[in-house]
Amino acid sequence: MTGGKIEGLFDKFNGLRCLIIGDVMVDSYIWGVVNRMSPEAPVPVFEVEKRENRLGGAANVALNIQSLGAVPILCGVVGSDAKGEVFRSLLDDLQLTTEGIVSDGTRSTTSKTRIISTPDHMMRVDEEVVTAVSHQVAENLLAFVKSQILQGIDVVIFEDYDKGVLSEELIQKVIAIAKQDGIPTCVDPKKNNFNSYQGATLFKPNFKEFTEGLDTKIEKDDFDQVVTLGKKFVEDENITQLLITLSEHGMIILDRVEKHHLLALKRNILDVSGAGDTVISTAALALAAGCDAETVAILANLAGGIVCEKVGVVPISRQVLMREYNTLY
Question: Tens digit of pLDDT for each residue in 152-190?
C-alpha cells in the first residue's frame, strides 16, 4: 500500500461509528521520585510530585478510536462514587459522550493507581468490584446497544477486563443483533468469557490469554503450534479471524485458510500498559474500512509497538502511525 493509499485508508476512518462495550476504569498516576529509604521499614520513601487521572480500559479504546479519526460510542458501568464522577468529567473534557455510561450504586468505579518514579513503574494499586452486574444493569446496557445500532454503527468492540460488565448472555445477544445488520464484531478477551464469543468477526487475545483460554501450555515461539491451535479455535468458535499478539515475536493473524506472521519491530519499550487497547482499536477500524487481514495486522502491529514507547496509558497518534507506515512500507 503506497503513501497515497494509506492516507486514503485513514480518510475512511473519518466518521466511522464504533460502539465499544465493556469494562471502563480510571487510570490514576502518582508521579514522583525516590531519594531515600524509610527509617520505619526496609522500603523506599516515594516523594509525590504530581497526580493525574486518565481514561482506562474500554475508555482507553474509545480514546484510541477518537485519535484515529473515528467516532467512539462508549458503553460501560461506573459506581456512584467520587471516581465515577472523575470518570464522567474526563469523558466531558475529551468531548466523549457519557450517554452509554450506566451508574450502579452497588459497585465502585474500577480504578488502577500506578506509582511511577520516571521511568520506573514501582507499584500498582487496584480498587474494583469484579462480580457480575445485575440483570437490570445488563438490560440497560443492551437497550443502549440496540438504540445505537438503530442509529447506525460500523463496528462493535468488546473490551473485556473480567470486571463483571460482560456476560455470555449479553455478549451473544449483542453479536446476534450486530450480525443481523452486517456489523463486524471485534473482541479483546479475558479468561472468564474466553469461550463466549462464538460468531465474532475478529478475536484478539495476547499469547497468555490465548493459552490460558485453551488451558494449554506451549512456547511462544512455537509458531506452528500456535497456528494449529488457532485454526482449531477459529473452527470451533466460528470466528472469522483470529489475531494473536506475541509481544517480542510480533503477531499472527489467521482464518480457516490463510495466516500472516508480522514480526515485531525493534522498540524502546517503556510501558506496555494499554497496548492491547491500541491494537484492538486499530484492527477494528481497519476491518471496518475494508482492509484485508494482512493490512489489519500490519497497522495493529505498528500501533501497538508505538504506544509501548510511552509511559502510561496513552492513545495512538494517527499522524505518527501514518508516518511510521510510510517510512517502513
Answer: 999 999 999 999 999 999 999 999 999 999 999 999 999
Domain range for 243 is 3-328
Question: Active-site positions?
Answer: 277
Looking up residue 322, the CATH number of its domain turns out to be: 3.40.1190.20
End-to-end CA distance of the chain: 7
Under a CB-based contact definition with an 8 Å cutoff, are residues 92 and 98 in contact? Answer: yes
pLDDT tens digits, residue range 99-151?
999 999 999 999 999 999 977 889 999 999 999 999 999 999 999 999 999 99
**8-state DSSP, 190:** -
Cβ neighbours of residue 267 closer than 8 Å, sequence gap 6 or more: 305, 306, 308, 309
The grid cell for 117 is 518514579
Query: Given this model, what pLDDT does residue 209 score?
Result: 96
Tally of CB atoms within 10 A around 35: 10
Q: Give the pLDDT of residue 2.
A: 53
Q: How many domains does the chain have?
A: 1
Handedness of CA 38, 42, 47, 50 (dihedral sign): negative
- Distance CA(100)–CA(165), nearest Å, equals 13
Q: Could you tell me which residues are beta bridge partners of residue 104? A: 79
Burial label for 50, CB within 10 Å (0-12, 13-18, 19+), is exposed
User: 244: Cβ–Cβ under 8 A, 6 or more apart, which residues?
Assistant: 204, 205, 206, 207, 210, 226, 230, 251, 252, 253
Sequence-separated (6 or more) residues with CB below 8 Å from residue 170: 138, 141, 142
